[in-house]
Each structure stands twice: as structure tokens, then as C-alpha cells.
Amino acid sequence: MNFRRSLLALAAAATTLAALAPAAQAQQQHYKAEYKLSLVLGTAFPWGKGGEIWANLVRERTQGRINIKLYPGTSLVQGDQTREFTALRQGVIDLAVGSTINWSPQIKQLNLFSLPFLTPDFAAIDALTQGEPGRIIFQAIDRAGVVPLAWGENGYREISNSKHAIKSPADLKGLKICVVGSPLFLETFTALGANPTQMSWADAQPALASGAVDGQENPLAVYQAARLHTVGQKHLTLWGYVADPLIFVVNKDVWNSWTPADREIVRQAAIDAGKEEIGIARKGLVEADKPLLKELAGNGVTVTELSPAEREAFVKATRPVYDKWKSTVGSDLVNAAEKAIAGRAK
Ligand code: X2X
């Protein structure tokens, strides 16, 4: 009798398992063999390293169920980085580590970080991304149909040019500067008397090399890894006018196709990769002797640091642009950002 009962129990268990297995299989079948991760900059840069760390963590922690391949150079949208967000939404891109600058034409709230001279230091960036403004921005991205998971960082954008040292807005007069992203950048540089021209990163490098443009603005880690001193960009001014955070995201349909457990793995891996990437992006700039500045000087680059009064002249010249864009970004969001920065841990 007992034996019979055990057999019955076994049979019941087998039936349950058999019923479960197809469900699990069905879920597995929705998984693609490979997921495409879009990046502007490759693994020679902190940005691309962040993508690589994320992909590796996901592959390890899902035992290969989710296999992510890197597509640097925004190659999935032929290098046109301002089309990256639309392609993400449409499913041409599965995942991305992207700059708020490149996605700001589609999501106006992302212009927040590009308001000139909003963030005075690294603690201010952290106050935004880890505080209420970061939550508001993630909601906006989510509403636009893309799942935001974690923050990373491209860095503070500093200005370089091939002509002369920039110490005041007058020194920018007439300089041809390439910029990317929304019209906010064109307005900021126009307010400073420069001659801005919109260009993707792919187009910017040959334009700098040929002298078609005089200058550019990018984080020091990008300047250094791209060896911009070799294309005549010998004058570098540290003005920290715009912080450039990155966001780790996933296309919504792809996200929904994963099991809840796998979603959690991908989210945690993005958070871990983001933290590590921010450390890489700030390397050489947060240590007391700022070794990156010495490296730059060693390459024959003139590094100009501004006195508070000199910096203030740039702040003043661009204030009308800040004020005008405040309503486009959203007054509530800008107010929340100013409050978070004022209350930051220093
Ligand atoms: O194009 C740029 O300047 C870059 C690489 O920094 C961005 O994608 C925002």
C-alpha cells in the first residue's frame, strides 16, 4: 500500500514537472542568442569599459542565458548618436550605456545636466543622480518606453582648441567649436561668442585633424584616450561647464521577455558596473595631486585652470541660456536639482 502511494506521489510530481517544463522552455525560447549593446565610445574609454563590465557580469550571473555583445561607435545607428534613443525605443538596439546629451533631443528633461555651470563638483553630480532629480529623470525615460537601471559617467566636459589658451569668453570669440546634442549647446556657445557647429563624435575627429574646426568639448578621460593632443588640440581649459552622466538602459520589450529573476540580475549588474565605471571615469582627477593633469602637461598640452573670478565671467555670459532653458527642462526638475546641489554632502 505504502509502495503504491509513493508511486502515485511520484507520478503526480512528474506530471507537475512536465507541466512546468514547457513554460520554462517557452520563456527560454524568447531569449535571443545575442543582445546588442550600443555605446558611443569603446573599451579604450571609461564609457566602453562600463559596457564591457556590465556585459561580463550579466553573462556570468545568468550562466550565459543573456549574452550581450558591444556595438561601440554607435554603429547600430551609423554613428548618429542623437538617433540612439529612438533606435532603443524601436528595438533596433536592445541595451545601451548612453549619454544624457545624445538622448536629450528626445527627452527634454535630460537637458538638465547640460545647463551651463549647474554642477560645481563631483558631489553635485552624485546629488543629482542619486537624489530626487535622478528619480524624476528615470521616470521620464521609463515613460518614453525604455527601462533605466543605473547611472555611470562620461565626465566633466572641458574645452580644448588649437589656437590659444581660453581664459575669458573673449578668447572664445569666433572659434569654431564642435558640439553634439540638443540646441542648448549651440545656444551656450553662441552666448559665449564662439561659432558652434553640431557634429557626431565620428565626424568630430577628422574635422579636428583637418582643422575644419578649431576646438571641441569632452571629458579629460576622452581627450586623453583619443589622444586629441595629436590633432593639434594643445590648449585645454578646465571650466567644468557641463557634467555628462551616462545611463544604463534596456529596451522595454526585451526587458519584459526576461524572467523576473534575470531582470534583477541585469539591474544589479548595471548598478555594480556603473559604480565601477564612475571610479574609472574619475581616475586621475580625484586624487590630491590630480595625476591626469600632469600626464596631459607631459604631452605638451597647456592646461589652463580658472580662478573663481575668471570662471564667473563664463557663468555670467551663459546665465540667460540657463534661465531660458529652465522651463524647457521643467522648472520643478531644475528647482529640485538646485536644491539637491545646495544640500549636497561636501
Ligand atoms: O560626442 C561626444 O562628444 C561624446 C563622445 O562625448 C558623447 O557622446 C556625448
**SS content category:** alpha/beta
Q: Bound compounds, please?
A: (2S)-2-hydroxy-2-methyl-3-oxobutanoic acid
Low-confidence segments, ≥5 residues, pLDDT <50?
none
**Overall body shape:** globular
Major sheet: 9 strands, mixed
CA distance, first residue to last residue: 75 Å
What is the average per-residue confidence, as pLDDT, rounded to a whole number?
Answer: 94
SS summary, helix count: 14
Strand element count: 9
Strand content: 15-25%
Structure in words:
With 346 residues, the protein is an alpha/beta fold. Helix content is 49%, strand content 18%. The protein has helices at residues 2-29, 46-61, 84-90, 100-103, 122-129, 132-143, 183-191, 201-210, 220-225, 252-257, 260-282, 291-298, 308-329, 331-342; strands spanning 35-38, 68-71, 95-99, 146-161, 176-179, 195-198, 215-219, 235-251, 302-305. Strands 1, 2, 3, 4, 5, 6, 7, 8 and 9 form a 9-stranded mixed beta sheet that branches. The longest helix is centred in the N-terminal third of the chain and has 28 residues, at 2-29. The mean pLDDT is 94. The protein binds (2S)-2-hydroxy-2-methyl-3-oxobutanoic acid.
